[in-house]
Amino acid sequence: MFKRILIANRGEIACRVIATARRLGVETVAVYSDADADALHVALADQAVHIGPAPARESYLLGDVILKAAKDTGAEAIHPGYGFLSENADFAEACEKAGIVFIGPPASAIRAMGSKSEAKALMDKAGVPLTPGYHGANQDPDHLQMEADGIGYPVLIKASAGGGGKGMRLVEQSADFQEALASCKREAASSFGDDRVLVERFVTRPRHIEMQVFADSHGNAVHLFERDCSIQRRHQKVVEEATAPGMPEDLRAKMGDAAVAAAKAVGYQGAGTVEFIAETKADGTPGDFFFMEMNTRLQVEHPVTEAVTGQDLVEWQLRVASGERLPMEQAEIFAFGHAVEVRLYAEDPDGGFLPSIGTLTHLRFPAESDGVRIDTGVREGDAISPYYDPMIAKVIAQGDDRDQAIATLIQALRDTEVAGISTNRDFLIRVLSHPDFKSGMLDTGFIAAKEDVLLPGKARASTIALTLASLLALDMQAQAAREIAMAGSDSHSPWARTNGWRLSDAAAVDLIFQDVEGTCQIAAIYQDGAWQIDLASGDTHSAVLMDRTDDRLIGRIDGIRYDIGYTQTGDRITLFLGDQTISLVQVDPFAMAAGIDQLDHALTAPMPGKVTAVFVSAGEAVAAGQSLMILEAMKMEHTIKAPAEGIVATLPFAVGEQVPDSAVLITFEEPETAS
User: Fold this and answer.
1) Where in the chain are the domains?
2) Bridge-partner residues for 563, per DSSP?
3) What is the CATH number of domain 209-218+244-454?
4) CATH code for 602-668?
């Protein structure tokens, strides 16, 4: 076993590797950029080395700088995690030349599987089923169009060097092919430095099922069963579970054999994942399957495999990389129960799932137990930056069966509290709670087909939420009054009471909150030991505050007890009410702000990014819904479209320029001046 390893990554996966290394008595060296100087993985490691500015291309992607850090600190091996350099064959090769062990497969295997076209050819030779498609070298757009037309629509354009859901476009008809191809090539070039693509038949109602494989340097290879990753958004996984619901044993055996054959075909070593597309039968169970790709690294979703097998896959990685044989043979590996994982992201589901940049002003996770596991790389007070993946945590639950695992995960998410930025928490709860998900009726189009239910849009705060917010605001006012009174000459004054007492025993307080749709006016009257909360909607509730701490509120409304989490930052109150996260701004009724000035005739950047394409020019008339420009952020393209017809006035940013958050991207002529 190694004495010291360097972890060439950040965030959650770096923390995950450190945990296993520490248990095994292996020292760890972290690397960090300017943005991560105070990050959790830096604090947890035994040593830490600064490697450059915040952008990944100037820090975490600099293989020579990371190798130097390994040499300078005496690290014997480098764990790449996932992303960044984890599937970089040149880096793996450089490690070998430097006499440092790369905790991953040999460079030859990475290269073989890094090219989707080459991988398909190898799999064909190994007898692994393939999806019909074009994987050739001719990248002429007209030739690719001809191949796509021959395959038949729908087709999927995929970056040959792609991964992580990047560089993929679904094309429904021939007329849309060229535009999708150009977009895919731009994203592939930006993300992977390689714009080559392949074209495949798109399987209708596909299940995305992957096999965890492991191989050592002694010729042994096994699989650790499958994971179902069918619940996706824009080809990126949202929910992962092990084992796959409804998987017949004979199909599991065939898929496992195919995955092991794929690993052996490329002389694989270490942890890898062979991904398959399976056609969905009428009853929702998987049918015929086809090889999609092989990820030559540890996957984000590996915890669900660990949960059902009882194995530590990072420990397996370290042992195999140090020259040991696989810890177990195939006949010794069993799967017990069920496990489900979701990725909690700093993103806005109601805003197209754009990343939410800002500070985690409040962060609470449920206590870890036999049934709940939290893998995270952030703490309360940390910033979600625009430079890296905005994942806050992976929340994993396991149970004796699938129903129990899902129920445990839903409760774990309900007990998760995040404020300061937007998250997908509520969206995840809706996905897990959907009857079709619970019944195992899964496919990769699940979210898109159910958007009206899963993405209902931002709703007004409920009367219960407003009543609880009123109780909180009233108690805070009373506390402030008490503190003033206690600081005065007469601490026993009745004005120091916090129960709403006034001379007439009927105190009226006006409250105003702002939610997603505007102001909510409330009249609160204290009488007979309770607050009567009268809302402008006409609803009235009787409310009593039972207890309040810095982050917990217990109240009784119309005789029903509510125990909720909350946080307050300035005038913003965030309530964690069951399946909903409610954000309200309290407004001073005597000095109601006019609001933030906004440009009436401009489009602003929804997040920081870089302009990669501009399709219009000043003075050009545009139609509603027309594509105006492309903003690249988080290695993903976001098309900026016209909200209505108009005439472009100015374009402050050109192709290649960096755009700050909320910057004006395009202005339009005033309606009265447009002609």
Assistant:
1) 4-103, 132-201, 209-218+244-454, 463-587, 602-668
2) 554
3) 3.30.470.20
4) 2.40.50.100
Pick the CATH number of 463-587 from 3.40.50.10490, 3.30.700.40, 3.40.47.10, 1.10.10.10: 3.30.700.40
CB-based burial of residue 30 (10 Å sphere; 0-12 exposed, 13-18 middle, 19+ buried)?
A: buried
Q: Are 135 and 123 in contact (CB under 8 A)?
A: no
Examine the pLDDT at 610 and tell me if it is beyond 50: yes
DSSP, residue by residue, 363-432: EE-PPP-SSEEEEES--TT-EE-TTS--EEEEEEEEESSHHHHHHHHHHHHHT-EEESS--SHHHHHHHH
Residue 644's pLDDT is 78
Tokens 């979600």, located at residue = 384
Cα–Cα distance between 418 and 576 in angstroms, integer? 9
Query: Would the pLDDT of 635 be above 70?
Result: no
Active site residue 297: yes
Contact 632, 609 (CB under 8 A): yes
User: What's this model's pTM, rounded to 2 decimal places?
Assistant: 0.80
- Which option is the CATH number for 132-201: 3.30.565.10, 3.30.70.260, 3.30.470.30, 3.30.1490.20? 3.30.1490.20
- Mode of pairing for the β-strands spanning 518-527 and 417-419: unpaired
Amino acid found at 549: T
Of 297, 343, 425, 430, the active-site residue reads 297
Residues β-bridged to residue 48 = 30
Give the distance, in angstroms, between the CA of residue 361 and the centroid of all CA atoms in the same chain: 19
Q: Which residues contact 36 (CB under 8 A, 6 or more apart)?
A: 10, 42
Q: Specify whether the CB–CB gap between 383 and 438 falls below 8 A.
A: no
CA distances from 445 to 187, 205, 236 (A): 22, 7, 12
Q: Which is it for strands 602-604 and 664-668: parallel, antiparallel or unpaired?
A: antiparallel
SS3 150: helix
Q: What is the pLDDT of residues 320-360, one digit of tens each?
A: 999 999 999 999 999 999 999 999 999 999 888 888 888 99
The dotted CATH code for 4-103 is 3.40.50.20
